Each structure stands twice: as structure tokens, then as C-alpha cells.
Amino acid sequence: MTIGRILVVDDETIARENLAYILRKEGHAIIGAEDGYTALQALQQNEFDLVMTDLKMQGVDGMEVLAAARAQTSAPEVIVITGFATVTSAVEAMHAGAFFYVSKPYQIEDVRILVQQALEKRALRQEVRDLKRQICEKPAAPALIGTSSKMEELKSAIRLIAAADCAVVILGETGTGKELVARMIHHFSTRAGNRFLALNCGAFNEELLANELFGHEKEAFTGARGIKKGLFETVQGGTILLDEIADMPLSMQVSLLRVLQEKKLLRVGGTQEVPIDIRVLAATNKNLREEVEKGTFRHDLYFRLNVMTLIVPPLSERREDIPLLCRHFLRKFGGSCDGVADVHPTALEILMEYEFPGNVRELENILERAAALTKGPVISMEDLPPDLQQRRLIVRRGKAPHEFLTLEENEREYIAWILKQVNYNKTRAAEILGIDRVSLWRKLRRYRMEE
Questions:
Q1: Rounded to two decimals, what is the model's pTM?
Q2: CB atoms closer than 10 angstroms to residue 398
Q3: According to the model, what pLDDT value does residue 84 have?
Q4: What is the percent of the chain where pLDDT is above 70?
């Protein structure tokens, strides 16, 4: 049963008090108004879930009360009651937003049912409004761009791991998006309402890293004038990403292991342990197993962190995502690059064949530069960096040596490709190749490529 705050409006004292008595017995909070004017004042001063108003009253009538109630930001439901029921007045009241139109005399049980239905509708409307507000206020999920099989597998794994609330090691080359993966894990976890923070462990020496992670007590060292909370404390309830974890000094690894095991920390210079509740994610572009074997990473910390492992694939292993990434980045640059909207097929072909040692980050930088330089809405081959214009990378990662092209085969294929791009304009092709037209003619004869 839904309990509500109800305004009862009727200029007949007996009718008003009888209805108020019935509703109070049901547990509702009731305020009575002896006329329409008093009802309008009550609506200004209070928030109601339901208004039950007589239709015919001196001065301010029930239709005015109905209009005032429905005009409120958090509008209550309204039931109109009248002893002078007509089809016209009923239709008018319903069109104005009344929940129901009741004729006197009425059955008490019928009124009880109507009140419950009205209050349930009001509660459902409020719930929908609250959910919409939560959706609008909640930050959008970080997005991994790509529909390749490897990316779809990664996205599925992220959602599964996010719910586990355990430590995760994220492996991947520089520029693949390891921090974005960490943010997605946080977003889909039960900790999403709390803070996410990323710290590059390779950017600090041992003393500074300890101070950043654990904080310090007053006078712990020269210049420590007060207590400083470390990042572990400031992220209470949330998630911290320890990026470049393989670069963390060994002595700091000991301290981190203790924090992960005990879920407590000691500030620098402190004696009182501070309990913490955080999720630790670690990322690196190195092979942690090899680092353990070399003695640069503690094996016990490795096993403590490596509860789950995610591998972010390099861009060269998901080339089919490059067109989608290009569109994404061009939309991102839209406001600052005069609406550059697309990449010419020739330029896209070059990008699709490039190895991208810097991965997605390198692609973004190339596109941002090209979008800034291009004179039209489409990025052409000439807008790409010179090294991409002047060569077409044939050797592909992961191929056996016997599949590589010889230098002559590579040159022949590159010349053929350049000619195709310029519609076999030999003068233009020679300019791109950086040779004169006679030298190009000799190479064409040598490789039997004459028209």
C-alpha cells in the first residue's frame, strides 16, 4: 500500500472532514482546505502527492485548483469530486490533467481504490524522473573504439572482470589504450560512483612515489608542515591505476605488497596504520614474467597483482578498426579543425598498411596533424607525414622471413603503387619518388613496367 500526502479541498465542512477521516484511517497525511483560495495557498507552501478537490466552490473553483496543482514542477495527481456531474465538466477536467472524475455520492471503497491508483501512478512517475536524472548525471562510459573480433573479446572481458573487484594487470604496447581499459573497468564496477585515479610509477623516484602513494605525517621530513593524505587515501572506495608498474623501485614494491595484503598503510613518518578500501589495477608495456625472472620485479607482488590479466592488442593486429578510429578522431577534432570530416581512400589505404609502432596514440597524432594542414574537408595523401607519403610498408609483423620482399621487389611494387595513385602521371610520380623523369623511365624499363 502506497502512503501519500493528500490535500482535501471542499467548501462543505462535513464532506471535507468525512473524506479526511477515511483517508487518515488508511495512514495518509491529510491537509484540509475549506475553499479554493486556501487550497492555492497550501499548494504554494507544501508538496502533495494527491489533491482531491470539489468542483463547484465559491470564488476559486476546482478547475483552478486542478490547473494550479498540475502546473507545479513536481505535480501531484488530482481527483475531481462533484455533486453536479456532467459529461462536459468531466471531459474538461480530464483534458486539464485530472487523474479521475468522481460523482457524489460515492462509494468509500471506490475512493480508496482510486486514491491508491493515483498514488502509485505518482510514485512511478517520480521513479522514472529520478532514473532519468541519474542517467543524465552519470558520466558516459569510456569507449574503446573498434568492432574487430579482438576488441569485442576485450570489451566482453572488461565487463566480466569489472564485477569481480579484484586486482587486474593490463598488458599492452605503448599507445594501445591501457588507461582507457582501466577506466572502463572502474566504470562498470561497483566502485563507479567513487574516484578513479591513474599514477605513472615511472615518473617519480622512490621517495616521491612513497610520498604520493602513502602521504606523510607532520614533520616527517624537512618542509612537511602538516599531514598529507596519499593517493591511496584520497581514492577511498574507488580505483587506482598504477601505470608503468614494472618501473616501480623494488623497495616500493615491498611496501605496495604489504598494502595489498593488509589493506592498511603507514604514512611516511607515521606509526598509526590507516585502513584503506581501494581496487588496484596495474598496467605495463613490459612482460612482467620476464621482469620477475630478471629480478627487477618481485614474484610475490606479481602473483598478488596478477589475479586477472587483460591484453590490449596493438593496432597492427586490428587494422580493420582503423577507418572507425579515423572517423572517431575526426569527430573529436571537429571543433578545432574546421569540420574535416573524412579521409580520402588513398590516404586511408596508406594508413591501413602502416605498422603504427605508436599504436592508437600515433594514429590520433597523425590525423590531428593532417586535419590541421588540409585545405578541404577530406584528408588526402599529401596531408600525411612525408615518411608515410614516400613509402608503402610491405613487411608485416609476424611473417616468416621467407615471405619478406626483396629490395628490388619492394621498389617495383612501390613505384607501381605511386603511379596508380597519380593516375600514371610520370612527372608527378617522379616528383613524389624524388627522382627525375629519365631515372623513372629507366626503372620502368628495368622492371618491364612500360605502358
A1: 0.60
A2: 7
A3: 80
A4: 92
Distance CA 389, CA 384 (A): 6
**CA 102/CA 85 separation, integer angstroms:** 8
Q: What is the pLDDT of residues 36-74, one digit of tens each?
A: 999 999 999 899 999 999 999 988 999 999 999 999 888
Phi-psi region of 205 (alpha: psi -120 to 50; beta: other; left: phi over 0): beta
**11 falls within a domain:** yes
pLDDT bracket for residue 393 (50, 70, 90): very low
> Which residues are within 8 A (CB) of 220 and not within 5 positions of it... i.e. 6 or more apart?
267, 268, 269, 270
What nine digits make up the cell of 11?
467548501
Residues 273 and 283: their CA atoms lie apart, in Å, by 27
pLDDT averaged over the chain? 87
For cell 592508437, the residue is 360
pLDDT of 81 strictly over 70: yes
Provide the domain limits for residue 169: 149-311
**CB 434 within 8 Å of CB 414:** no
Residue 348 reports pLDDT greater than 60: yes
pLDDT given at position 134: 63
Measured CA to CA in angstroms, residue 99 lies from 11, 114, 120, 235 at distances of: 21, 9, 12, 48
Residue 142 lies in a domain: no
Q: Which residue is associated with the grid cell 623523369?
A: 437
Domain boundary among the residues 294, 311, 328 is at: 311
User: Residue 233 burial (CB < 10 Å; 0-12/13-18/19+)?
Assistant: middle
Domain containing 90 — which CATH number? 3.40.50.2300
**Residue 61: what pLDDT?**
92
Span 387-403, mean pLDDT? 52
Peptide bond into 105 cis (omega under 30): yes
Query: Both ends of the chain: CA-CA distance in Å?
Result: 89
Position 136 pLDDT exceeds 60: no
* Residue recorded with cell 569510456: 142
Q: Specify whether 172 is located in the same domain as 292.
A: yes
Whether residues 87 and 220 fall in one domain: no
State the DSSP code for 158. Answer: H
